[in-house]
UniProtKB/TrEMBL annotation:
Record's keyword terms, sorted: Hydrolase
Domain Alpha/beta hydrolase fold-3: residue ranges: 20-190, 249-308
InterPro entries reported for this sequence: AB_hydrolase_3, AB_hydrolase_fold, GDXG_lipolytic_enzyme
Full protein name: Arylacetamide deacetylase
GO molecular function, one term: hydrolase activity
Pfam families: Abhydrolase_3
Organism: Ascaris suum
Length: 331
C-alpha cells in the first residue's frame, strides 16, 4: 500500500465544507488502490508559522517510525502532495527530510557502496554520503499551484489579475497578503496588507539579492511578454521589514530559498494560467531543475486556482488524470 499525505489548502481558517477534498481523495483511492492520509494541521492565526510545518512533519515521522506497520504501508513508497499552502507544506517536509538525512530503519535492506569522502552516490532515493547510509522516505512530491515565496506581489501573474481578473478569481492578491501576514504572526491590518502588496516588506538589498531566484526574466517568455513591466517599489517600511525578517527568509516558509536541494525526490508541479501563484510554481520548477531534481511541470493555461475542488470542471478532470498517471509511474 502507498500512503499519501494530502495537506489542506490554507494556512488560515476557512469555512470549508467538511470533506472538501473527499472527491479528490476517493478518486486517487479508486484509481490507484492507495492509502491516503489527510493531515488536519492547525491553522493561523491561532497556530502561526512554524506550527503547521512541525505538525505535518510530526505525522510523517510517526508514519515512518512505526505506524506504517499498523496500516500495512511500505514506508519507502511515500508521496507528499498538497495544493496551495498544502503544496508549500508538502515540499517543506521533503526538504526537511533531505536536510536531516534520517538514518535507515532496521527493516530496510542496506546497499553498500564505496565512495570517497564528500562523494555522493544515488540509488533509488537512497543516499550514501561519506559512507553513511540513509533513506529519504519521500519517494515523490505532487505540488498543486503551491505557495513558494512571498517576495514579489507584482509578478506577471499578479499583474494579470489586476488587468484581467480583478474581482473574479478565487484567490486574490489582498487575500494572499493577509494570509502571509497571519501565517507569519504579523498583524494583518489594512495598512500592513497594502504595504505587503507593494513589496514594502523587503529591504532594497534583499530585493536585489533575490533577483537571481525570482526575476521576471527567469519566467517563460509567454508568461512575461505582456506583463513584464517593472513597477517601481515604494520605500521599504522599516517596521514591516523587521517583522518579516524574523521568519520570512526561512526556507521552511519560502522553500525557493532551500539550499543543496540535490537529492530531493522527483516532483510534479501543477500551475494554472489564471492564478496569482502561477509564477511561483514555474520558478520553483526551475530551481529544482538547477539541482538536477527530476521535475514534471504541468501548466494548464485555462485552469484557475482551486480548480481541483470543482467537480464539474473539465480542467479539473484532466489535472487529476495527469496526477494519477504520474503517481502510477513514480510509486
Amino acid at each position: 500500500m502507498l500512503p499519501r499525505a494530502l495537506s489542506k489548502s490554507s494556512w488560515r481558517h476557512l469555512k470549508l465544507a467538511e470533506g472538501h477534498y473527499d472527491n479528490v481523495i476517493y478518486m486517487l483511492i479508486a484509481r490507484l488502490g492507495i492509502l491516503v492520509i489527510s493531515i488536519d494541521y492547525r491553522l493561523s492565526p491561532e497556530s502561526p508559522y512554524p506550527e503547521p510545518v512541525n505538525e505535518c512533519e510530526a505525522v510523517f515521522h510517526r508514519l515512518v517510525n512505526g505506524e506504517h506497520e499498523r496500516f500495512d504501508i511500505d514506508p519507502r513508497r511515500i508521496c507528499v502532495m498538497g495544493d496551495s499552502a498544502g503544496g508549500n507544506l508538502s515540499t517543506v517536509v521533503a526538504q526537511r527530510q533531505l536536510r536531516k538525512k534520517l538514518p535507515s530503519p532496521k527493516w530496510c535492506c542496506h546497499t553498500f557502496l564505496k565512495c570517497s569522502m564528500g562523494a555522493t552516490a544515488v540509488l533509488a532515493n537512497r543516499y550514501l554520503i561519506c559512507g553513511a547510509d540513509f533513506q529519504l522516505y519521500v519517494n515523490c512530491q505532487v505540488l498543486i499551484y503551491p505557495v513558494i515565496h512571498s517576495f514579489d506581489l507584482k509578478s506577471p501573474s499578479y499583474q494579470i489579475y489586476y488587468k484581467q481578473l480583478c474581482g473574479t478569481s478565487l484567490l486574490n492578491p489582498r487575500l494572499m497578503a493577509r494570509w502571509y501576514l497571519l501565517y507569519l504572526g504579523i498583524p494583518a491590518t489594512p495598512a500592513n496588507i497594502e504595504k505587503f502588496l507593494a513589496n514594502r516588506h523587503l529591504r532594497r538589498k534583499d530585493s536585489e539579492r533575490l533577483q537571481e531566484l525570482i526575476s521576471h526574466e527567469l519566467l517563460p517568455a509567454e508568461f512575461s511578454e505582456d506583463y513584464s513591466e517593472k513597477q517601481a517599489d515604494p520605500p521599504p517600511d522599516d517596521d514591516l521589514c523587521r517583522l518579516f525578517n524574523k521568519n520570512g527568509f526561512d526556507p521552511d516558509f519560502a522553500p525557493i530559498l532551500g539550499k543543496d536541494l540535490f537529492g530531493l525526490p522527483p516532483a510534479m508541479i501543477v500551475t494554472a494560467g489564471y492564478d496569482i501563484l502561477r509564477d511561483e510554481g514555474a520558478l520553483y520548477a526551475k530551481r529544482l531543475q538547477s539541482f538536477n531534481v527530476p521535475v514534471q511541470w504541468n501548466h494548464y493555461p485555462a485552469a484557475y486556482h482551486g480548480v481541483i475542488n470543482m467537480p464539474s470542471s473539465m480542467q479539473r478532470n484532466q489535472i487529476l488524470d495527469d496526477i494519477a498517471h504520474y503517481l502510477d509511474m513514480n510509486l
